[in-house]
């Protein structure tokens, strides 16, 4: 992994000459962000090669503990079990908003948190109950363990169970495609991936936009975190520093997530 | 080997050839032995791999049963990892149903098109078709999944109701994915049936179809069984596409239009993000799947063996 | 003496129909992929490196990675797979317990979901043996995945050869291995090629297992020990993370073309090899 | 009594790709008679036989010109039901090829596909056919074992039984006695003599004595030509063509 | 001059699963002589031939007891190099089976695997073998066409040429003349007479005249037993066993 990952300069920033290979592994939702960050980082440090791997948050933790990866990328909070396995340093690098989305053809444009919860509890089954047309609601959710779902159940569901009949998709893309293809579907995805074939709903009258996330009026959000074994050192530290630098944070914003405070 | 009488003979002028493995022949024989050993090793690789995989899956999966009874795991329909409920009963049923559903249409269509390519279509067309079918085998599962999601699911929703993500959608997509395996392996073994059988049958006044039905297909039986077994293996093991079109609700389906979750889907869906007991439960799912496949193969082996004695080989 | 009976015509009709269904499926799926993918397709898309996590630039490194990984998997799996088939059909007695065991394991291996291979490869190769995410780890994992197909098809091809060929060759004083080399393998070749081609398809189309073993890093691999992202993994990321469905289909289109080319070359080179 | 011709060939030519194997054969095959075909290896005897029931069509690259008649109906036309033709004109091949099934199933195959399904009836046919082919005694206690396990001569007799079970009108036999011991050969010759009253038989043989013994007519082929065709007695006693004489007296070549 | 025995079998028994096909055969095969084996179909002739070069082992479920000697060396032992054995003891099978290759490649197959790679040398061997088998004239202009396209008799001669090309010491022939016309048969008989000076030949034939004409010794098999084995002259003129007499005079069964 971190081969000859020494830096010859005395501070971790920009101008110092860095060399070696850095491996980041984990959450697939963080992966595109890490990739763009790595692209920039490598441009600035031609001697560095950054490998960005996916595999999921759990694989990221696994790989970081075993040393196969220098940095693990996780799109949810670490579980207690994971925290106990090894001494891991957690560095939040971005905030990602989670949007509740429906088909653009749906005439509903905003819901109360309580309604969303009731839909996902299976109590509200038809769009007409909440101001839509007379059609059954197709509830689309993410899989157990997903960071997006984690945020959704914590904030919207209050840890109550999502209805068993919900359609489960295991990626942002699949949820998007499902909702884009079904006029009566509702789902939730990372705000950065909303696009024009699905429509984000206002929640409790708050639009799903950066300002509301920042101000905390739009509560549905989750962190992207980097984990390292012990405190980050060498290349890993240099990279994390870069990510947290204004330049790095700007890239994150360009890609659709939000700065860490 | 018993020796009754030694031949009592004199003056035997021998050629300078020795039947016995003598020094000068040593090397040649050694090469043969060496090759046999190498080939034996190749075969042993299978056992080694399976052993490694077994150890690995079982080591990771077995600990679950210290917390949850095997019966609960197998037969309970409650799957709620965050709350600590791990029951794969629904997925067991889902796996069986979607595999059967896929086989139900793709085996007959696959076999009859294999026959079409081998026996009925002009050889050139048959060959071209075979090569095209190989293309189907190379299309990544994800593409099938998205095609399913964008084309087949809405089609089902519009034509039959429900939301489209269903057992039916899974069976259609899976069936398409195993077609190449079924078609091309059976086609090959149909083509390998000696021509003499065909002419003998036709000369007895059999129609072309009767010849196919009663001589050619039975003679190619073992290859056809292989194709179906490999196809079924692929069906059970295929996930990426199934996950995208079956809806994955952990419920017992009430109709072919209801969503289902298979055991493989369960693993693929959650493994990337699972930890702790949840992860162990997913490995235990893999373990059950593994045993299911072994059992299934034992049964097929038995069935295929019954009445294969045609005196060849 | 009349013409062909109505019943026969009906049966023939069914056969033609199933042929047509296959053609229909083929044309619609490939047609769909091409229609969705052709928009992003240009020379730059094929020959340049991806930029911006794949939402810009091309897919060149993923093409190269796909080729490396597939080739490595074949180099490992074809000799072992065909070797095992030869052993089972030519050396082992059909009643032997070992043969029974190998056959059973081969079939079991065929049914194991690729995600399990991926997890196995991840824990055993990537972590335990310390190979890391690399072409080597991915190639070995793929090889394990395609072994059963190669072996079973080769076995089948050998089994269907008329036993007389074997007898005649041996009676001419050919050794067992010579008989295998000169008679059995060449004549079983079409079946073996079918297995190899199906396997190439499987290897090129695989995603889940590769993400865990070869990784999904976007760089251009320089050695066996570098991580690599294949085209399928790339399109998986593009589609599943909602980066760009159009580019995903563009990549799929290139996969189809690549499969065509690889199949052609595999056919050609294996036929050469048999001489 | 006027002669009844069961089959006739008119200017029959067969080409394998460019190679012409039959040069335009005219032959009349009389009903309820045995016609023997003789001639050196490679002269076209098998080709001729195979073209009588249109089996040559199965070999890719084969073209057939001229005409063959069965009961004065043309055989090479689009309207002919080839299956019916082959059912009426049975064939024993030069290389006996048994199906990979049991002995019983090999013989029952023909009757079955022609619609006989009753077990009794099939049993009867199998037994009768095997008896006629002089194989019954050897195999009656192992009817269900694979036919591939029979000895060479047993397989040849099995193939004969298989054809008899279909009960055709014409039987074409391509060296049916080649792998048979003298006893089985004698039996086969007796059988042919018996069958004659109900069937028309064409037999290829390399055994001149056999041809002389069993046949009513003999045709001598050479390089794809029918050099001479006549009463067997005439051919063997009074051959008109020098080449025929040379061949049957063994002075050929 | 004392007799030199090239091959010998002692109490040779062969079982197919439970069926005993050979009942304990003792036979001495003299060097540079022709030994003919006769007997009704299914009596074990092919089985006996096939056990002389251990080809029976290829059929699963076969057990062999007793011993066979080649030049006084035991053949059924673990130390024997079966490949050498089969190279020294060549075999022409009852059912000619050509490899699906060209005519040339079929004949060159044996020499090639025995290490001859020079084109000239192979060409010579192929030509010589095809000439010996009396096939050269018919195929010299199409050596590269597939062997499967030959007529039945041509294939049989090709198989003979293929064995000659390996130049064994003993040649086992299982009804090599079954599909041959009289001319080719006569040639084959001449060939056998010629080969005799360098090879030891064992031939299975159903043709009594042929056995009488070409062989020095004749063995009569019946139901897996070697009923009588003697000088050919004695066997045919003075059979000691009633069953032999019945068989060769055709009074059998
Ligand atoms: N593979 C086998 N399994 C079982 N029985 C067999 C097998 N091969 C031959 N037999 C039986 O062994 C006996 C001897 O067979 P063999 O082939 O030696 O006869 P043969 O004397 O050569 O007869 P033919 O003149 O018909 O060729 C026969 O009864 C035959 O049915
Ligand atoms: N499939 C084929 N392709 C090309 N030539 C062929 C084919 N079959 C036969 N021939 C040639 O046609 C000629 C006639 O063959 P045919 O089989 O009719 O001979 P035959 O008289 O039956 O000889 P035999 O007595 O040896 O069986 C031969 O020269 C043969 O080589
Ligand atoms: Mg012929
Ligand atoms: Mg025999
Ligand atoms: O864990 P996810 O970010 O893919 O929901």
TrEMBL record, chain B:
ABC transmembrane type-1 domain span: 92-300
Compartments it resides in: Cell membrane
Key word DNA damage present: no
Gene3D superfamilies: MetI-like (1.10.3720.10)
Listed transmembrane segments: 38-65, 85-111, 132-156, 162-183, 240-260, 280-300
UniProt GO BP: phosphate ion transport
A Pfam entry, by short name: BPD_transp_1
Membrane topology listed for this record: Multi-pass membrane protein
GO cellular component, one term: plasma membrane
Family from the record: Belongs to the binding-protein-dependent transport system permease family. CysTW subfamily.
Annotated function: Part of the binding-protein-dependent transport system for phosphate; probably responsible for the translocation of the substrate across the membrane.
Protein name as it appears in the record: Phosphate transport system permease protein
Organism encoding this protein: Syntrophomonas zehnderi OL-4
UniProtKB/TrEMBL annotation, chain C:
Keywords: Cell membrane, Membrane, Transmembrane, Transmembrane helix, Transport
Pfam families the UniProt entry points to: BPD_transp_1
Positions of the ABC transmembrane type-1 domain: 63-266
UniProt family annotation: Belongs to the binding-protein-dependent transport system permease family. CysTW subfamily.
Organism superkingdom: Bacteria
Entry's Gene Ontology molecular function annotations: phosphate transmembrane transporter activity
Subcellular location per the Swiss-Prot or TrEMBL entry: Cell membrane
Protein name: Phosphate transport system permease protein PstA
From TrEMBL, chains D, E:
A cellular component annotation (GO) from this entry: membrane
One MF annotation (Gene Ontology) recorded for this entry: ATP hydrolysis activity
Keywords: ATP-binding, Nucleotide-binding, Transport
Domain called ABC transporter: residue spans: 7-248
GO biological process, alphabetically ordered: phosphate ion transmembrane transport
PANTHER family: ABC TRANSPORTER I FAMILY MEMBER 17
Designated name of the protein: Phosphate transport system permease protein 1
Organism classification: Bacteria, Bacillati, Bacillota, Clostridia, Eubacteriales
């Amino acid at each position: 992994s971190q081969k000859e990952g020494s830096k010859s300069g005395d501070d971790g920033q920009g101008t110092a000459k860095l060399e070696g290979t850095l491996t980041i592994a984990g959450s697939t939702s963080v992966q595109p962000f890490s990739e763009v960050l790595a692209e920039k980082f490598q441009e600035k440090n031609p001697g560095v090669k950054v490998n960005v791997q996916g595999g999921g948050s759990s694989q990221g933790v696994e790989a970081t503990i075993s040393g196969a990866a220098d940095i693990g990328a996780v799109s949810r909070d670490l579980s207690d079990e994971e925290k106990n396995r090894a001494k891991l340093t957690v560095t939040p690098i971005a905030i990602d908003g989670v949007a509740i989305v429906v088909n653009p053809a749906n005439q509903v444009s905003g819901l109360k948190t309580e309604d969303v919860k009731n839909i996902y509890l299976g109590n509200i089954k038809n769009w007409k109950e909440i101001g839509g047309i007379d059609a059954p609601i197709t509830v689309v959710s993410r899989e157990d363990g997903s960071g997006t779902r984690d945020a959704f159940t914590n904030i919207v569901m209050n840890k109550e169970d999502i209805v068993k009949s919900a359609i489960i998709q295991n990626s942002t893309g699949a949820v998007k495609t499902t909702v884009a293809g079904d006029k009566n579907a509702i789902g939730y995805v990372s705000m950065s991936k909303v696009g024009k074939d699905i429509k984000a709903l206002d929640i409790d009258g708050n639009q799903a936009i950066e300002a509301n996330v920042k101000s905390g009026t739009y509560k549905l959000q989750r962190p992207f975190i980097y984990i390292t074994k012990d405190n980050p050192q060498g290349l890993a530290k240099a990279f994390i520093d870069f990510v947290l630098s204004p330049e790095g944070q700007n890239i994150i914003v360009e890609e659709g997530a939000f700065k860490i405070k | 080997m018993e020796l009754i009488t030694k031949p009592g003979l004199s003056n035997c002028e021998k050629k300078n050839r020795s039947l016995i493995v003598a020094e000068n022949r040593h090397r040649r024989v050694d090469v043969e032995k060496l090759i046999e050993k190498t080939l034996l090793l190749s075969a042993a690789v299978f056992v080694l791999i399976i052993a490694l995989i077994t150890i690995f899956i079982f080591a990771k999966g077995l600990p679950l049963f210290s917390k949850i009874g095997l019966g609960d795991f197998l037969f309970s329909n409650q799957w709620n990892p965050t709350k600590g409920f791990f029951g794969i009963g629904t997925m067991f049923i889902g796996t069986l149903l979607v595999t059967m559903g896929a086989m139900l249409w793709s085996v007959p269509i696959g076999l009859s098109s294999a026959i079409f390519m081998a026996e009925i279509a002009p050889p050139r067309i048959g060959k071209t078709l075979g090569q095209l079918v190989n293309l189907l085998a190379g299309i990544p599962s994800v593409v099938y999944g998205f095609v399913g999601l964008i084309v087949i699911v809405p089609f089902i929703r519009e034509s039959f109701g429900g939301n489209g993500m269903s057992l039916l959608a899974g069976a259609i997509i899976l069936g398409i994915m195993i077609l190449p395996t079924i078609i091309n392996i059976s086609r090959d073994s149909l083509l390998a049936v000696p021509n003499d059988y065909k002419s003998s049958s036709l000369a007895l006044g059999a129609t072309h179809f009767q010849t196919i039905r009663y001589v050619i297909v039975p003679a190619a039986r073992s290859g056809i069984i292989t194709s179906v077994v490999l196809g079924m293996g692929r069906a059970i093991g295929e996930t990426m596409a199934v996950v995208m079109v079956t809806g994955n609700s952990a419920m017992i389906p009430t109709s072919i239009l209801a969503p289902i979750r298979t055991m493989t889907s369960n693993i693929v869906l959650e493994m990337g993000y699972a930890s702790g007991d949840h992860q162990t439960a997913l490995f235990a799912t893999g373990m059950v799947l593994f045993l299911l496949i072994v059992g299934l193969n034992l049964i097929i082996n038995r069935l295929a063996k019954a009445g294969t004695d045609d005196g060849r080989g | 003496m009349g013409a062909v009976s109505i019943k026969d015509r009906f049966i023939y009709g069914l056969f033609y129909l199933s042929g047509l269904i296959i053609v229909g499926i083929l044309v619609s799926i490939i047609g769909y992929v091409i229609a969705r993918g052709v928009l992003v397709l240009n020379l730059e898309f094929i020959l340049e490196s991806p930029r911006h996590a794949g939402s810009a630039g091309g897919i060149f490194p993923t093409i190269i990675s796909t080729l490396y990984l597939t080739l490595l998997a074949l180099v490992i799996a074809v000799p072992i797979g065909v070797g095992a088939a030869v052993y089972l059909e030519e050396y082992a007695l059909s009643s032997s317990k070992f043969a029974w065991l190998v056959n059973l394991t081969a079939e079991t291996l065929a049914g194991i979901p690729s995600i399990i291979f991926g997890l196995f490869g991840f824990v055993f190769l990537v972590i335990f043996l310390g190979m890391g995410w690399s072409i080597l780890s991915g190639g070995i994992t793929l090889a394990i995945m395609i072994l059963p197909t190669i072996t079973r098809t080769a076995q089948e091809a050998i089994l269907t050869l008329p036993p007389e060929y074997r007898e005649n060759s041996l009676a001419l004083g050919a050794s067992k291995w010579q008989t295998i080399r000169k008679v059995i393998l060449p004549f079983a070749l079409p079946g073996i090629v079918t297995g190899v081609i199906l396997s190439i398809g499987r290897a090129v189309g695989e995603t889940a297992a590769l993400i865990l073993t070869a990784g999904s890093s976007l760089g251009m691999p320089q050695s066996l020990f570098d991580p690599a992202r294949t085209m399928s993994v790339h399109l998986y990321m593009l589609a599943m993370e909602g980066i760009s469905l159009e580019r995903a289909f563009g990549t799929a289109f290139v996969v189809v073309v690549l499969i065509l080319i690889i199949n052609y070359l595999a056919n050609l080179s294996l036929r050469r090899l048999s001489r | 009594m006027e002669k009844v011709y069961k089959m006739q060939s008119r200017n029959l030519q067969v080409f394998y790709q460019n190679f012409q194997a039959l040069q335009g054969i005219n032959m009349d095959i009389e009903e309820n008679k045995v016609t023997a075909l003789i001639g050196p290896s490679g002269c076209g005897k098998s080709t001729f036989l195979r073209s009588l029931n249109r089996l040559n069509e199965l070999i890719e690259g084969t073209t057939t010109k001229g005409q063959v008649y069965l009961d004065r109906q043309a055989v090479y036309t689009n309207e002919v039901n080839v299956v019916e033709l082959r059912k009426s004109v049975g064939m024993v091949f030069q290389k006996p090829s048994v199906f990979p099934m049991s002995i019983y199933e090999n013989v029952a195959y023909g009757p079955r596909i022609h619609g006989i399904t009753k077990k009794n009836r099939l049993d009867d046919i199998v037994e009768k056919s095997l008896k006629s082919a002089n194989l019954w005694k050897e195999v009656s206690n192992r009817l269900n074992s694979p036919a591939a396990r029979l000895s060479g001569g047993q397989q040849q007799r099995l193939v004969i039984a298989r054809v008899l079970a279909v009960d055709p009108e014409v039987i074409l036999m391509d060296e049916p006695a080649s792998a048979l011991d003298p006893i089985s050969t004698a039996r086969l010759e007796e059988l042919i003599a018996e069958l004659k009253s109900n069937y028309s038989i064409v037999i290829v043989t390399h055994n001149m004595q056999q041809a002389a013994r069993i046949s009513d007519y003999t045709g001598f082929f050479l390089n794809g030509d029918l050099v001479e065709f006549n009463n067997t007695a005439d051919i063997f006693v009074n051959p008109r063509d020098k080449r025929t004489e040379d061949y049957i007296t063994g002075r050929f070549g």
